[in-house]
Amino acid sequence: MCGIVGAVSHRDVVADLVEGLRRLEYRGYDSAGVAILNDGNIQNRRAVGKVAKLADLIKEQPLTGTTGVAHTRWATHGVPAERNAHPHRSGEDVVVVHNGIIENHAELRDSLKADGYTFQSETDTEVIAHLLARHLKSGLSLEASVKAAREELVGAYGMAAISPHEPDVMVVARAGSPLVIGIADDEHLIASDVFALLPITQRFIFLEEGDVAVLSRKTIAIFDSENNAVVRDEKFSEVSAENTEKGHYEHYMLKEIYEQPAVIAETLEGRIYKGRLLEESFGHTATELFDKTKNIHIIACGTSYHAGLVAKYWLEEIGIPCHVEVASEYRYRQVVVPEGTLFISVSQSGETADTLAALRAGKGAKYLGCLTVCNVPESSLVRESDVAVMTRAGKEIGVASTKAFTTQLVALRLITIALARRQGMNQDQEKALVEELHALPRQVEVVLELADEIKAMAASFADKQNALFLGRGTFYPIAMEGALKLKEISYIHAEAYAAGELKHGPLALVDEIMPVVCALPDDPLLEKVLSNLQEVRARGGELFLFSDKKVKIPLDKYQDLKLDDICPSTAPIVYSIPLQLLSYFVALEKGTDVDQPRNLAKSVTVE
Ligand code: M6R
Q1: Across residues 77-92, what is the average pLDDT?
Q2: Is 288 helix (H, G, I), strand (E, B) or coil?
Q3: Share of the chain above pLDDT 90, in %
Q4: Does residue 253's CB lie within 6 angstroms of at least one atom of ligand 1?
Q5: Which residue, of 156, 258, 350, 488, has the greatest Cβ tally within 10 A?
Q6: Domains of the chain, first to last
């Protein structure tokens, strides 16, 4: 969950390293640091807090150098403090940055202490620095030291090491955490994510599990986990640095909410045409898997898990049994896999540690195959799955997921239609469902035009401590997603309940100051939900509703926002938008850090 950047170049790289960190800040923002090789010395600057603090420090105490590494941290071992901020060094021998967790750090620490190494931090990373120093002192090169350390380290990591003994070399290793090499003129760079390097290059090499790479300005040598020299293909990233700026929006989250009509259209592009699903767009392997699919297991975390829960309703409606589970539970239990089951992982980043571990466990079980719904083409989940259905949301930077969620739902809807064909859906039924998807971008646009009304509603929320979100059917997971968004960015305690569960306990929480949020689409469960809302009103609860224009609300008091002409099959997607906006405006009222809420990080690459 930390971000790392590094460079070996002919020019001063400090400014680019800091800019790279700024672009990786979504991965963690407790502290940041840079280390540079300069005249046979290691010089570093580290600061607690966001990258801007580090940039200020470097302004006061400038640094220059042509080889350097940098890091932005999401604390795991040790509190956010300067001593725990990366880079970590071992004297004047070596300096490292690391993303991941070294599981055997305690025993390595004991052995290094016994050899006289003293530790400045509580981090697991510092053991890597001293381990490398011990190998360097025994006469090994930096490359050989990293390869030797690879044999001793247990855990997940992406790391980069530089040493004043070999000032024009950087050695990097990947085991469980993403690492990419950027290729530019007379220089090579590394980062946890291409995004960090986009202002400099769009040419990348993605390291594979177990790889070690040795970089100089002009050369790259890559060795696989068996230490064979290997060639990894160079890829050109279509994403440009400009596409990933905030533009005129105050926050990335707001920009990403407003991008939804465009990215939903993009996710549908080439996949539907004239009322038909173009199934070939998923590829031959997908079609073969769909032919054999009798059951589905969907595994994901957080917002992506909520997308999976919505899909469960869709899939079971067409007669396909579907089990949905959070990856952190799935990976550690005995799972029964009925014959003909397709494994589906859902993830924005494609790097979430628990989801990746679940996929790897799934690959060892008797699934038909593994499909991922993912937003990052170069991610580990995509590379390790048999089939990838890409959401085309573009880079999502706000920690709170918005456009990634709605495009995941679109992709899952397309998969549902592909499977519904095999369940006997006729062409007219398919046409109706595809037309509903086709209409979706415009419907989302119309809801976005209601932003000012949602902002006014949010004003009544700012002083709240708690909130309840209710829903039935597909709107239950949508309520879960609404509650997650609110708690994530406004720090208001929010819980979601299936509306019918209210009287089985949570109703005890309802009083005059409890806000209750609920979507009221015009669907067969409407009357049931309205009865549940009566129960809320009878206890004085304050209702915030998002309802279909056709719905008559027989309640005495409520705030309501009307949505027009929403299609039944895509309604969960459309109703997600006002809930996203509500959370955003509440957070704005409260003055919290919308894009980088406390204690969280965008890409959860540790367990
Ligand atoms: O990248 P992923 O979709 O695998 O991430 C899963 C969760 O960490 C993520 O959805 C998280 O819950 C978001 N911050 C929610 O807004």
Answers
A1: 93
A2: helix
A3: 81
A4: no
A5: 350
A6: 3-243 (3.60.20.10), 246-445 (3.40.50.10490), 450-607 (3.40.50.10490)
